[in-house]
Amino acid sequence: MEEVLTINLSVHTDMEMNFRSDEGVRFRKVRANIGIDEESSELEESDVADRFREEAQEESLDISSYPWEEHGDGECLDVPSFWDYIWGELTRGYSLDNDELRYTEKQKKISAFLRIPIELEKFLFYGTLQCLEAFCHLSTFLPIRLLTSVVGSLLYSRKWTASNTCDFLKAFIVTVCSCLMTLIDTSVMYHQVRGQGVIKLYIFYNMLEVADKLFSSFGQDIFDALFWSSTHSSSSYVRMFVHLFIAVIYTWLHTILVLLQATTLNVAFNSHTQALLAIMMSNNFVELKGSVFKKFAKANLFQMSCSDVRERFHIFTLLAVVVVRNMMAVNWKFEHFVEMLPDLALVTIAEVIVDWLKHAFITKFNEIPAEVYQDFTITIAFDVVRSRGEKAFSDYSDQVSRRMGFIPIPLTILLIRVITQTFDFTVTSVQLFFCLTWLLLLSVKIVNGIVVLEKACEHVKHYRELQEKADCEIFRKRVLMMKSKSAPNSPRISLIDFSDVLHQPASNKGFTVSDLMSHWDELNRSLETTPIPEPRRTKSLALFK
């Protein structure tokens, strides 16, 4: 082991010749992990040697015959007398400074644990704004886009494009399913649900939640297949109509499912004992048991975070439907709304606290830094920029559906059904109120879209700046060494990504923004003491156009 500790550049050639020796194999692994090739400079070879010494020292520290030999506590083997034992228990002391490293690490973990709710809420808030953007787009800009496309096509001033076809299919599905929803009597559905027992309703609501997630994960695939078959020239009309029929049936069933969720939640709010509401709220805490004790990688945590964004927006929409239905039943008395506020606050607070605890313990048990939510925010920010580029391959709302599992079409149809049943549109005042509400929703869509795009540009710009910083040779190698001894060589910062919601993501290679930010101060201190050499080769940045 002494030979290992005194390794230098002169023995590098001997280790290369001794190909089958353990030291030679380990030395080549260290070179590969740091990213040094055969044609390396002296500075890079010294980095390899330093890293090899560090690993050898770590192994030598781990091979001690007895745990107390590290601290020189051999005298503890003497068995004290009875009175010496009593006196020792009364007078013995200890100092936390004897294990400073352990306590410093614990302090960092507590600080990270307390930071998780703040970082999580930043990501969830930005993701909720994206869901709101996709939801408002369907009822505001989609009709305007469709109207301008039809008029432009009739006047031969605009060419009919694939995006116009997709917009037309969305409007057609919303119209057909809204007509089909008129066949369902919501009053009969409400009384059927209310007549069931509390436990049966609790089980039924859990089944609806699971079915809703499965429908959401499968629904966007149906729409993608429909859009492709309707815009691709090689697809037959028979296939397009089959996909259209499947999409209409799926949307109708999913809307009925969401309506059942809203009805069950409405029954819980109107129950006299409110036992059902308490049981449904406790179901959120049961979710902790199934999540916090599982192994999570960053990509898996990203999937769960996106699912939480969708779930939070979904529950807020259902609560809005419940409020509208209850206010209509009491002729819009404000006193009844005040009575509902405590229950609404309890449901919201329970949802938020469960998300905080779930993410805090998952990151703690899996040793994931709090900065990982910056990675997630940057990834969904790239989604916003991509959807508005010249080479965009899908509408922004479809991109949100793939990322978050949030499909706005069933919720839009549900709101249309609730609004048409709540208000009498033959009255002039109701028509005027509806027009003002639509203009307000359009204003919210415009302002929210500008804010989302502005924040996306800021996050992408910040990502590029970090990438330029990480392009420094020493900086990149030290991040990789701090991250893991077996981290692969990567000349750029990686983005955490996955293909579709609820799909198993691929393992992430290289280092990410969270790896960079979690060691930011330490890396900057090391750069101040170590000169930065000129890079031997150019590395291309992932510039996004």
TrEMBL record:
One of its GO terms (biological process) is positive regulation of cilium assembly. It holds the Pfam family DUF747. It is a multi-pass membrane protein. GO terms for cellular component: ciliary basal body; endoplasmic reticulum membrane. InterPro entries: Tatp1. Keywords: Membrane, Transmembrane, Transmembrane helix. Belongs to the TAPT1 family. This is Protein POLLEN DEFECTIVE IN GUIDANCE 1. It comes from Elaeophora elaphi.
